[in-house]
Amino acid sequence: MDIINDPKEIQELTSRLKCSGKIISLVPTMGYFHAGHLSLMKWARENSDIVFVSLFVNPTQFGPKEDYNSYPRDFERDTKMAQEVGVDYIFAPEKDVIYEPDHGTWVSVPKLAQYLCGKSRPGHFQGVCTIVLKLFNLVNPHLAIFGKKDYQQFVIIKKMVKDLNVPVKIIGRPIVREIDGLAMSSRNSYLTQDERKQAANIYLGLKKACEWTKNGVRDSETIISKLSECYMEHIPSGEIDYIEIVDPTDLTPVKTIDKEAILAVAIYLGKARLIDNILLEVK
Ligand code: PAF
Question: Which pLDDT score, from 0 to 100, does residue 54 have?
Fold first, then answer.
């Protein structure tokens, strides 16, 4: 496995590889790998010839009071883990090379960014779209693989690619969970032992909500208020940022669940802000 820092080098390499007919995949990441990241890399390994993983903690998607400086980083451990699952190249550029001092172009999908996490993280998805488009332009992959824990990010990137005719296929992969159900996230490392125990109830609550829907509760408000009570009881140290039920494609709020919908939640717990989601089915 090779590590490349220079954007020009990566662009030259990938255009050579593409000319020789290789199928290239990219797994964009901010590092501090866990089994969720590895599942994306393994999928890429099985479905393409050359696997690139970008490892870049993107400053522009963090708000001024967010955890950019404290975001967990462990480059050596990450490179070892990536190598073990057969990644071919890690692209790990420096911040100042990706964002030159005169950087002045931003990509946003405001209609989709106004919902869910976009409300409490203004500018976040603009930072995500801008870096992801830059990575697409540098690596020029056929396939790019994203986890569906960041469901809104996945929908926004698909829309950006469609609207801007970016020649890449976006693949969304299922959420990978700990044994007790907590969605894997680099930010889980912020949790104390007690918070970590409480955090498992995020998914347990989502599963209950699925059952309520299956048993005939179709009114979103009822589900949201039952789930909010459940979280207040079982995650006493947490603070709910949002619990929302939205359309899986355009993220608009759903009032009555008469077809598939996404139940998405964000909860502040200690130093972490945890997100998770589940598909609600009516049959
Ligand atoms: O999901 C992430 O880790 C980041 O938002 C991404 C897509 C790598 C962009 O920085």
Answer: 98
Atom of ligand 1 nearest to the CA of 57: 10
Ranges of the chain whose pLDDT falls below 50: none
Q: What is the pTM of this model?
A: 0.98
String of DSSP letters for 2-30: EEE--HHHHHHHHHHHHHTT--EEEEEE-
Domain count, the chain: 2
Q: State whether 77 and 154 are in the same domain.
A: yes
**Atom 1, ligand 1: which residue's CA is nearest?**
29
CA distance 112 to 168: 20
- Residue 183 and residue 185: Cα distance in Å, rounded? 6
Q: Calculate how far, in angstroms, residue 29's C-alpha sits from the geometric centre of ligand 1.
A: 5
pLDDT tens-digit readout, 38-69:
999 999 999 999 999 999 999 999 999 999 99
Distance 129 CA to ligand 1 centre (A): 9
Write down the pLDDT at residue 283: 76
Asked whether the beta carbons of 152 and 118 are under 8 A apart, the reply is yes
17 C-alpha to ligand 1 centroid (Å): 24
Q: Which amino acid residue places its CA nearest to atom 3 of ligand 1?
A: 29
In a domain, 178, yes or no: no
Q: Is residue 90 part of a domain?
A: yes
- Strands 238-246, 261-269: pairing kind: antiparallel
Extended beta strands in 110-179, E state: 143-147, 169-173
Active site amino acids: 37
Residue owning tokens 């355009």? 250
Pocket, ligand 1, Cβ cutoff 6 A: 28-30, 58, 61, 128, 131-132, 150, 153
Domain hosting 229: range is: 186-278
